[in-house]
Amino acid sequence: MLVCIDAGHAESxxxxxxxxxxxxxxxxxxxxxxxxxxxxxxxxxxxxYSCDLETSKDISLSTRCKTANNAKADxxxxxxxxxxxxxxxxxxxxxxxxxxxxxxxxxxxxxIRKESIALLKLKDRGIKTDSLYVTNHTKMxxxxxxxxxxxxxxxxxxxxxxxxxEKCAIADAKGILSYLGIAWxxxxxxxxxxxxxxxxxxxxxxKQNAETLKAELKAAGYEATIVKxx
Length: 230
Ligand SMILES: [Zn+2]
What we know:
This protein has helices spanning 25-41, 61-70, 103-120, 133-137, 153-160, 162-180, 207-219; strands spanning 2-7, 46-49, 75-82, 94-98, 124-128, 141-149. The chain is an alpha/beta fold and 230 residues long. The structure holds zinc ion.
């Protein structure tokens, strides 16, 4: 299973910033993309980016789609934040785009939608089928997620917040995993601790005595290790 993660835009993309200039959309997209990659990979899913996330160059949509198609990715997810109007306004909410008529795209979008609305608590603008370049030109099941509006003051503040970005990445990861039938594991979930039994043969204050016993054990065919205990 290979997921291609597409972080929309770059530093040199015209526009795509909040009216006060404090948020560039590409920064949000890249931050979420990196955390999405992390969460998918710790669940055993392979990922690639559609372009270098450190570049300031605006990578064309056709290059991004070609990268996904050439790598034969199974899924494609494009990360964005939304914009509307020419001054701060009330347009708000979360939405996702799929290729019109794609049954798998709809299934994947439904899973991401369920997780996102629950976690991000944004208005649900639903699943849209507008014709978009990346959903049209990728050969695999593809979605494009708009994680709120940076042209809305309240949502712009959220989009700048690291904790909110993490929630976006988790919602996207949970949706993808749920679509794939893989159970989500919390990051700090630890494996149950196993009891182990150590065999001790001696304990000395003088290190030379420990070395002597170790040599004797070795000569007798046992592996021995000296452990320093403070
Ligand atoms: Zn965008």
